[in-house]
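so my prof wants the structure for this chain in the tokens format not the other one, which i didnt know existed until like an hour ago. anyway here's the sequence
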Amino acid sequence: MADAKPAAAASAANTTPRQGGRQDRRQRGGRRDDRRNQRDEAPKEFEEVVINIDRVARVVKGGRRFRFKALVVVGNHKGKVGVGVSKGQDVQTAISKATDVAKKNLITVPITNETIPHDAEVKVSGAQVLIKPAAPGTGIIAGGVVRQVIGVTGIRNMLSKSLGSTNKVNIAYATIDALKTMVPREQWIGAEKKAAKKEAK
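here's what i got, hopefully its the right format
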């Protein structure tokens, strides 16, 4: 009986640190999770919108090789927007590559009173896109691809019409080219003269 008490005490002593170790591990694990959550909560500079994903095939000697093609638009809602198209073995790879392409081809759109400064019409291949400025409160009157591209630019009011081809890639590039042609109101011909006359008065 005398030997049983020291053995019980030794076993209790051995189990106590293990439980403490498990608790420490849980606490450390919680800290790691908190760090991951902080990284995920960091705001992104650009919003990424996947417009379309297609499965494409290439005929090779052994048969067909299937891949995915992604069309992505990125924007920061402050006048910067870009469109990218890329292919990958899976959907996630195609989207990430297209996003990188879009970020490398960003353009800056001049925004005046939450709308574009003037109207423009651009044709890319078979797709033709017409965009016009609109009064405050109108909203974005556009459909499909044009709405998704304009939605990440920061423009609040605009009218648009898509004519011709329904190819989403061509419509996206036509919309970007139309936004590229925008000239700020300060750079219009005669704008400096009008400003000088106002100052003289």
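also thought this was worth mentioning. The helical segments are 4-41, 91-104, 145-151, 168-180, 191-200.
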